[in-house]
Every structure is written in C-alpha cells, then in structure tokens.
Amino acid sequence: MQAALRWLVAVASSALAFAGVAVPWAVLSEGGDDPWDVIGPVAGVVAAGVLAALGWWASQAGGAGVRRVRQSARGGGRITQTGGNAGAGAGSSGAAVREDVRQRARSDGTGDIDQVGGDRA
User: Fold this and answer.
1) Distances from the Cα of 25 to the Cαs of 28, 96, 119, in angstroms?
2) pTM score > 0.70 for this model?
C-alpha cells in the first residue's frame, strides 16, 4: 500500500510539473502558429525529470523486497557463518525486511558448524 501511494505521488507530481511549466508559458506567449511545438517538449523534459527523481524515491519504499541469504558449510574444522545484522555489513538497520534463508551444513564429525541466517540478538 505504501509503495502504491508513493508511485501515485510521483506520477501526480510529474503531471503537475508539466502543467506548471506549460500553462503559464502558453498563457504568456505571444501569438505564433503553434507555440506547443516548443512548450510541449520542454514541459515534457521537466515532467520526465520530476518523474525520474520521484520514481527513484517511490522505489525505495522501506522494507520492500526480500533479503536472501544462502549459506553452505562443510566440516573439518570450526565453521561460523552469520547472514544477518550481526554479520559484517549485512542487513538493513531497523527496516522490516522479509527474509528467505537457505542453509546447508555438513560435518565429518571433527568440527563445529554455527550458522545464523537472521538477526542475532
């Protein structure tokens, strides 16, 4: 719902930017056969710029998407893997993120394996 609202704001703002450039220019322009040959493309470029900037903002809806963690380990020694916020540079702080975690481990009996695929409290 939040992402749809952000996109609605982005598209509406782009249309307002087009109107904000085109309408005053058309009202203030003097004569000419067809001033919209110039007004339309210029207002379109401004509207496209607004849509590009706000489209980026709309696509950054907090918590959208899935963070995927894939881990695999084999024994023979002590193995520790962390795929969450406790890991080095992993995860996003505070944002609600759905996680898709897949882990595999194998040991030949001589080592410990410690895998964490989410937040370690």
Assistant:
1) 5, 45, 55
2) no
